Amino acid sequence: xxxxxxxxxxxxxxxxxxxxxxxxxxxxxxxxxxxxxxxxxxxxxxxxxxxxxxxxxxxxxxxxxxxxxxxxxxxxxxxxxxxxxxxxxxxxxxxxxxxxxxxxxxxxxxxxxxxxxxxxxxxxxxxxxxxxxxxxxxxxxxxxxxxxxxxxxxxxxxxxxxxxxxxxxxxxxxxxxxxxxxxxxxxxxxxxxxxxxxxxxxxxxxxxxxxxxxxxxxxxxxxxxxxxxxxxxxxxxxxxxxxxxxxxxxxxxxxxxxxxxxxxxxxxxxxxxxxxxxxxxxxxxxxxx
Length: 289
What we know:
Elements: E1 5-9, H1 16-21, E2 24-27, E3 30-33, E4 36-39, H2 48-56, E5 62-64, H3 68-80, E6 85-89, H4 97-111, E7 117-121, H5 127-141, H6 146-156, E8 160-165, H7 170-174, H8 180-189, E9 191-197, E10 203-210, H9 212-226, E11 235-239, H10 243-257, E12 262-266, H11 269-275, E13 280-285
Parallel strand pairs: 1-2, 1-6, 6-7, 11-12
Antiparallel strand pairs: 3-4, 3-5, 8-9, 8-13, 9-10, 11-13
Helix pairs in contact: 3-4, 5-6, 9-10
């Protein structure tokens, strides 16, 4: 039996079935679109297909981070009951959500000293964060306590590789990840950037490819260069409503990494707001990021 509560937020892009099956509690992050709020603790989340349909039609969503009050609402019942909590947070390099968790945990520690709350900055996003949670699940279910599990997860952070490519540079430009000139020229020349998440949890361009399939192949080349996966280590794949590209990526992975479990899920609206439709990402354990 697991010795503590494992919690994360929906920046992890894990599907609802994963939270249920593996007894992971979630904190719902949210966004606004056309003046309506979705997600958070008070509003239903928009269906991912509808989200990408509206995004492609020109909608301009905007995300909002978790607040200390929201974090407290999730953590306090466990603290009051004397339960320990390990919370794996969306990268501090991309959101202030981690700071909200830390502030809430500090308050609760003073009020409920019998409970241990550990907040880890995943320095990850999307299913990179989800993969880190998956490692935590397996460690905790092996009988490890909260401190041992937290130390194990922390040791994996610098090796949790995120590599992804995008179909459209517009949303990266809107978020300041590429310049307006780069976005214009890249779109005209059909240049597809390859990016990763660095040690501080920021999005960093690492290459440019001419055409979609070459950019997808470049993801696998990065895996071949960096992977230190053991037989039991999985590969996680997330996508912004581009199933055909997922199939192509999986066909390449089957040739190079056929023995590894694969887990595929869509990029949710919170991450998709910044990455856009057509994003394709792969996450794995590497020698370094």
